[in-house]
User: What shape does this take?
Amino acid sequence: MAKKLLIRLSENKMQSLSKHKNLKDARILITNDDGYEADGIKLLTEIIEPMVKEVWVIAPSKESSGSGHSLTVRRNIDVVQRSDQKFSVDGTPTDCVILALNQIMESTKPDLVLSGINRGVNIAEDITYSGTVGAAYEATIAGVRAIALSQELSTAAKIDWSSARENLGVVIQRLYNEDWKPDCLLNVNFPKQITCEGQIKFSSQGRHKEGDEIALISNYNGKRSYRIGAVKVNKSIQKNSDIEALKNGCISVTPISINHTDTAFKNTLENQS
Assistant: This one.
């Protein structure tokens, strides 16, 4: 029978976690924003479990796409234990990471957090809305290395996981062996089909948003109901961007800093004062 826990968020600060030299010795935390039962997180777990020492899955009980880096602060959060090291959380992806590091895995800290595999890409401005990236962001704040993983849709409604299925293990192995800046997460996007030489492209965050699809659902007695749909994107492709990498059939790997300071502009403002 599933074990149900009632947990309040803790304000304790996380310590930086020790790193294993070899991935096979690592303890991995897996989460996502598509929900505990999503195909992407099942595939990620299937690929990673044979590669490492230990895997924990702590993910939202229902879809939390578009939740960004939000957390739950005005209600209790229910956590259901599905098996020894697998839990579903009635909260956001960020909630999952906070509870994992401060409560559920408090005595068994992870060496790496993997968030995904998201159904659809998280590139350009998308990353600011993404719960997949938000979970990796929270882990990075806590001093744990983290990778956000997403698979490009084959069509507007369908997805073929082959690109991620066939290459994710190699990508994780390579990235795990790299030296990371402590305030940096990695955002990985798999194309529909890999067609570029070298497969991996280390890219910059692009820009493509020019608006939003907004539908008026009802307008009655002074009350309007709207639905926000897909992002409107332009056709511009910045050189060496994550957009260009996917267009060229490459696996895009983008380092994302949690320090948002525009140092160059700050220096300009200081010099003008």
Q: What stands out?
A: The chain has one domain: 3-207+239-260.
